[in-house]
Design goal:
alpha+beta; single chain
Length: 789
C-alpha cells in the first residue's frame, strides 16, 4: 500500500508517550502539524512496582483508539543512552574510498561484532572536495545492539504499527535545533573550520537522563548525562521520607507545598550534581574543539518546569539558560493552540526532530531500522504482484495448451506414418555412420600416440647432450683472441672458469627447492664481491697459503688449463659414477646481484613449480685480484655472477636443427635461449672464501712436460703452498723446485633448474607464439626466424 506524505513521530519516554503528525508545507522552512497526542503512564516506567511492557502496550492501544495511522509513515525515537554515537575526522582521502574507511573505523569504534549491531553513518556538513579528494571530512557513526532494537520495536509490532525510521533522541533534537532554532545558518560551502559560527547548547532533561547537544549547525557533539527529573523525586523520598507518588506530586507543585524551602533543601544535592556534570561536559567539549565558542544555552523537557532550576544553571554556567517559548518552523493552529500541547510543548522536541528528518528536511538522515525488516516488507509488498504475474502466466499457458490440443485433434496420423518411418530409418543410418567415424577416430588416435612415443624416445637422446653443450657455451673463455696471440701468463688475467663436477637430481616439487633457496642468507661469504681475500689467519683460512690438498693449476699453453678433475676450460666432465646426486643447497643469490640486494631479488621472483631437475656445477677460477688491484675489475663471487650465472640466465646459443621423424640433425642451425632449453633460476650457493694458492709457472710446466717425455716419467704438475711447507728436504724430488706463481683461488657451487624441453616441443611453442603475434599484428609485419646454415 503506498504511503502518504504525512508522518507520525513517536517518542516513547519513561513518563509518557508523545506523538506528533506532520505534513510538508509550501514553504521549505516550515512543517504543518495537524494532530498530536500526549499519554502519561499511570506510573513511571522506572518506578518500583511498575510493569514497563504492560504500561507501554496500554498507552499504544489508547493512542491507536484515538488516532489512525493508515497510509502514514512512522518514525520512532529511542533514548540516547541505548545507542552509540561517534564522530570521526578523516584525513584527506578519495571520495570513493570513504565507505571502506568508515567500515574499518566501525570495526574499531564499535565494541561489538558488527553482525550483532545495527549501524549507520553520514558525512557531516562543512567539508570540501578538491580533485576528487574529500578534505576536512567528519563522519558521524551511530549504532545500537540489534537485540535492543528489536526489544524496543516489539510493543509496536504487537500493536500492528510498522516503523519506517528509528533514530536516537539526541540526533532528532539536533535536526530540530538546526531546522527550528538556527534559521540564519548558511550553506555548507560557507563553513570555515578555522572560524566556525557560535555553538548552541541544548539541554533536554528526561525522566532518567539528560541529553546534552552542542552544535554550530555543521558539526554536532552529544553526551548523555545520567541525571533526570526522577532523581529530584528520589531525593525527596530519601530526605523527607515520602512515598514515591507523594514526592512526585510535591515536585510538580513546589509552589503549593507547605514548606517549599525544605523541598529545595532536599533537592539541592541533585542541583549541584547536575550543574557539575554540565560544566564537565562543556569543558571537555571546549578542550576537544578549541576554536568553538558557545553562543547560547537552551533548555527543554518538562523537568525544567521545576522553579529555580534554569536560574541555578545560568548562575553556575555563566550563560543564560533560555526556555523555548514557541516552535518557529511549525504551523497548525489545531495543534499549537491545544492546551495539552502548550502545557507539554517542551517535551515534543524529539517528535519535532523525527518529523523533520522523515519529511526530508533534516541534516542527519541515518536510520537504525534493521535492514532485514525493510527487506521483509519489500518482499511482502511485491508478493501480490508476483502472484498476479504467476496467474497471468498460468492462464496464458492454459490457453496455449488448449489451442494446440485442438489443432492436434485435427491431424490425421495415417497421412504422416510413412514419412515418420522414413525419417526414423534415415536417423538410424546417420547414427551408424557416426559410430563408425568415432571408432575410426579412436584407432587413429591410438596409432598416433604410438608414433609420438617412438619419436619422443628419439628426441630424448639429445636432451642431455644439449644440456652439456649449453653449459659449455655458458662458460667464459678467451675464444675471441686472434690466432697466434699468446694467452696471458698470469692466471688471474685469463677469462676462464674450471668445472670440476656436474651433478643432477630429479625432484617432484621444484617449489620446495626454491622455498629452501629463499630461506638461506644472502650469498657473499667471507670474501667481498670485489674479490678481496680474507686476511691470513682469519676464519675460513686454515693457513697463510690456503688449504692443503691438490688443486689443479692451469696447463701451460693452449686455451685452457687442467683442474683437479682433469677439466679443461670449456669442457664438461661427467660426475663420478659412485658419487650420489647432491641435495640442492638452500642459500642462493640471483644472477647479477649480491648481498641484501640478491636476497631481495630472489624473494621477489615467482619461482618454479612442479617436477624437474636441479643441476649442480662445482668449480673454481683464478680471476681474482688483491685489494690494491681490484678496483673496476671482476673478482671472486661477482666474476661468477657476471659470467657463468648471467649466461645461464639469458644467453642464446646455436643448436643443430633436429628432425624427429628422421632421428638425426640437419645441416641447419637455430638460435635457442636458455629458457627455451628449460634452464632457469641459476643461483650461487655455498659461498667459500678466497684461497691463497701456488700454481706452476707456464714456462716451467712446459719444461717439465718435455723432460718427462724424454725420460718417460710423469710431469710434476703443482706445488700447493701448504703441501710444500709440510715436506722435508729429504722427501723432495731431486729434480729441483719448479717455478710457481701466487694466485687467489675462488671455489664455488652453482645450481639451476632444468626442465627438459624436446625440440618438437620448442617448435610447437614457437608456432603458438607466432599465431598469437599474428592475431595482434598484420601478417606483413611478422617475420618468423628461419634456421641459419
Amino acid at each position: 500500500m503506498p504511503k502518504s506524505e504525512a508522518v507520525w513521530a513517536l517518542d516513547i519516554g519513561q513518563c509518557s508517550l508523545k506523538a506528533l503528525r506532520c505534513l510538508p508545507d509550501e514553504r521549505p522552512d516550515r512543517l504543518v502539524a495537524d494532530a498530536f497526542d500526549y499519554i502519561e503512564y499511570p506510573k513511571i516506567l522506572s518506578q518500583p512496582g511498575a510493569e514497563p511492557a504492560q504500561l507501554v502496550s496500554d498507552a499504544l492501544k489508547e493512542f491507536l483508539s484515538r488516532n489512525t495511522l493508515k497510509g502514514d509513515r512512522v518514525a520512532l525515537g529511542v533514548p540516547g543512552q541505548t545507542g552509540l554515537a561517534r564522530f570521526i575526522k578523516l584525513p584527506p582521502v578519495e571520495k570513493k574510498k570513504i565507505p571502506a574507511i568508515v567500515y574499518y573505523e566501525a570495526k574499531q569504534q564499535i565494541p561489538f561484532d558488527l553482525a550483532d549491531v545495527v549501524w549507520d553513518y553520514q558525512r557531516m556538513g562543512g567539508d570540501t572536495e578538491e580533485e576528487g579528494f574529500a578534505l576536512e571530512t567528519e563522519i558521524g557513526l551511530f549504532a545500537m545492539k540489534r537485540e535492543q532494537v528489536f526489544r524496543i520495536l516489539e510493543p509496536l509490532t504487537q500493536a500492528g504499527i510498522e516503523v519506517d525510521l528509528v533514530q536516537l533522541a539526541p540526533l532528532a533534537l539536533y535536526n530540530f535545533l538546526v531546522f527550528d532554532q538556527m534559521p540564519d545558518l548558511g550553506p555548507p560551502e560557507e563553513y570555515d573550520p578555522e572560524n566556525p559560527p557560535p555553538s548552541v547548547v541544548l539541554l533536554s532533561m528526561g525522566t532518567d537522563a539528560t541529553d546534552l547537544i552542542v552544535t554550530n549547525g555543521y558539526r554536532v557533539w552529544q553526551r548523555s548525562i545520567p541525571i533526570g527529573g526522577n532523581h529530584f523525586t528520589k531525593a525527596l523520598t530519601k530526605e523527607l521520607r515520602l512515598t514515591f507518588a507523594k514526592a512526585e506530586h510535591l515536585k510538580r507543585n513546589v509552589s503549593a507545598a507547605e514548606d517549599p524551602k525544605a523541598l529545595f533543601q532536599a533537592m539541592r544535592p541533585v542541583f549541584q550534581d547536575f550543574l557539575t556534570e554540565v560544566q564537565r561536559s562543556l569543558t571537555f567539549f571546549s578542550n576537544l574543539n578549541r576554536k568553538a565558542h558557545i553562543g547560547r544555552v537552551v533548555a527543554m523537557g518538562n523537568a525544567f518546569k521545576l522553579p529555580g532550576l534554569r536560574k541555578y544553571l545560568s548562575q553556575g554556567l555563566g550563560y543564560e539558560v533560555q526556555r523555548i517559548e514557541l516552535f518557529r518552523g511549525l504551523v497548525g493552529p489545531q495543534v499549537l493552540h491545544a492546551p495539552a500541547f502548550k502545557e507539554n510543548m517542551e517535551s515534543f522536541g524529539v517528535c519535532y526532530g523525527l518529523a523533520v528528518q522523515a519529511l526530508g528536511k533534516g541534516l542527519l538522515r541515518t536510520n537504525l531500522l534493521p535492514k532485514e525488516i525493510l527487506q521483509d516488507r519489500l518482499i511482502r509488498d511485491k508478493k501480490p504482484w508476483a502472484v498476479a504475474a504467476a496467474a497471468v502466466l498460468m492462464l496464458a499457458s492454459t490457453l496455449s495448451f488448449v489451442s494446440w490440443t485442438r489443432a492436434l485433434g485435427t491431424v490425421e496420423e495415417s497421412a504422416w506414418k510413412d514419412s515418420q518411418q522414413k525419417a526414423q530409418e534415415l536417423k538410424q543410418f546417420a547414427d551408424n555412420w557416426k559410430q563408425q567415424i568415432e571408432q575410426t577416430l579412436g584407432e587413429f588416435q591410438r596409432t598416433d600416440q604410438i608414433g609420438q612415443n617412438l619419436v619422443g624416445n628419439v628426441e630424448r637422446r639429445i636432451l642431455w647432450a644439449e644440456l652439456l653443450y649449453a653449459i659449455n657455451e655458458c662458460l667464459p673463455g678467451d675464444r675471441a683472441n686472434p690466432l697466434g696471440q699468446p694467452r696471458p701468463i698470469d692466471p688471474k688475467e685469463r677469462n676462464e672458469i674450471y668445472i670440476e663436477s656436474i651433478e643432477a637430481q630429479r625432484v617432484d616439487r621444484l617449489e620446495d627447492w626454491y622455498a629452501a633457496v629463499q630461506g638461506r642468507p644472502p650469498v657473499g661469504g667471507p670474501a667481498s664481491s670485489s674479490g678481496e681475500p680474507m686476511p691470513t689467519g682469519s676464519p675460513g683460512m686454515p693457513g697463510p697459503m690456503g688449504p692443503s690438498g691438490p688443486v689443479g693449476p692451469p696447463a701451460p699453453g693452449g686455451a685452457g688449463g687442467t683442474g683437479a678433475a682433469g677439466m679443461v676450460p670449456g669442457a664438461i666432465a661427467a660426475p663420478p659414477a659412485a658419487s650420489p646426486p647432491a641435495t640442492p643447497a638452500l642459500a642462493t643469490a640471483p644472477a647479477g646481484a649480491s648481498g641484501t640486494e640478491a636476497a631481495t631479488t630472489a624473494s621477489a621472483a615467482p619461482g618454479p613449480s612442479g617436477p624437474g631437475w636441479v643441476v649442480r656445477l662445482t668449480g673454481y677460477h683464478f680471476h681474482n685480484y688483491p685489494p690494491q688491484e681490484a678496483k673496476g675489475r671482476l673478482s671472486g663471487l661477482e666474476y661468477v655472477q657476471r659470467t657463468l650465472i648471467e649466461n645461464l640466465r639469458s644467453k642464446t646459443i646455436e643448436l643443430p636443427v633436429f628432425t624427429a621423424t628422421e632421428g638425426s640433425t640437419t645441416g641447419k642451425k637455430e638460435k635457442v635461449t636458455m629458457k627455451e632449453l628449460g634452464i632457469e633460476y641459476p643461483v650461487l650457493v655455498e659461498p667459500k672464501p678466497l684461497q691463497r694458492w701456488k700454481v706452476p709457472h707456464p714456462k716451467s710446466v712446459v719444461a717439465e712436460m718435455l723432460k718427462a717425455n724424454q725420460n718417460g716419467t710423469a710431469p710434476k704438475t703443482e706445488t700447493p703452498a701448504s703441501a710444500e711447507q709440510g715436506t722435508s728436504a729429504a722427501e723432495k724430488e731431486p729434480t729441483g723446485p719448479t717455478e710457481t706463481i701466487d694466485v687467489l683461488k675462488y671455489p664455488f657451487t652453482v645450481e639451476f633448474v632444468w626442465r627438459p624441453t624436446p625440440p618438437s616441443k620448442r617448435a610447437e611453442e614457437r608456432q603458438k607464439a607466432l599465431q598469437a603475434q599474428a592475431a595482434q599484428q598484420p601478417s606483413s609485419q611478422i617475420s618468423p626466424e628461419k634456421p641459419t646454415m
